[in-house]
Amino acid sequence: MNRDLIHESLAKKVKNKMLSDDLLFDVAEVFKIFGDSTRIKIIYALKLSELCVSDIAFITNSSESAISHQLRILKQAKLVKSRKDGKIVYYSLKDEHVIKLFEIGREHALEL
Amino acid sequence: MNRDLIHESLAKKVKNKMLSDDLLFDVAEVFKIFGDSTRIKIIYALKLSELCVSDIAFITNSSESAISHQLRILKQAKLVKSRKDGKIVYYSLKDEHVIKLFEIGREHALEL
DNA sequence: CCTTCATTTGAATACCCGTTCATATATTCA
DNA sequence: TGAATATATGAACGGGTATTCAAATGAAGG
Fold first, then answer.
1. Which of A2, A26, A70, B100 has minimal CB crowding within 10 Å?
2. Does A53 reside within a domain?
3. Does the model's pTM come out above 0.90?
4. Which residues form the domain of B89?
5. How long is the CA B85 to C1' C17 vector, in angstroms?
């Protein structure tokens, strides 16, 4: 780690302009949530409609347990919200921001 | 997996409207690339300037080997491009799309 | 050529994380 | 209250992946 810098002036300038490690970590965390097939499927399904756990399990061909675990993660990340009606818990996307992120990722995926 | 559907009609409708597993998988893959602190740091640094491997290692406090590995991943994902000048390889972001995705993730991270 | 230096590569390690399975909680209804 | 059902939870297992370390590649300069 104690070498000569190849472009000392430039590298130090860029290093000074870097965002904080904390913020960059948080940004990575947001993307990490979207970076799983099951969660992306859930997000897209919820983009189409409010749904309960077993609906989502059916739609995504996953177990209810797996979906429940993933919904907890999505909820902790404040990407989805839930309401309870009797035995059934209905999940939906928390805001338009989530949809925006999804759409841009989708555009990019299509460009490959 | 062979239960009664709670909201059969709705669930089947949503399932029919789902994007293909392949596409949703690809979308998740894109986000997965962004979902790592080191790679996000690299992306942000390259947003500020074209840089070589050892510059990036200095800026991100990582080893050159680790950066090189991550740059390969970023290049395979078509998020960065490179040009060679003698011994030195200069990396830069491939297009504005990458910046757009980063910025939206950043906005979302700030909203927590 | 031989050395130096920037980068790459491969194998090994260690860690993270998604799923499964079994069980628990909670709510409805008989 | 007791059975049935929807969801949640916790532990454990397995697969994936980021980093490290050692070594290889490739280019410049003496």
1. A2
2. yes
3. yes
4. 19-111
5. 40
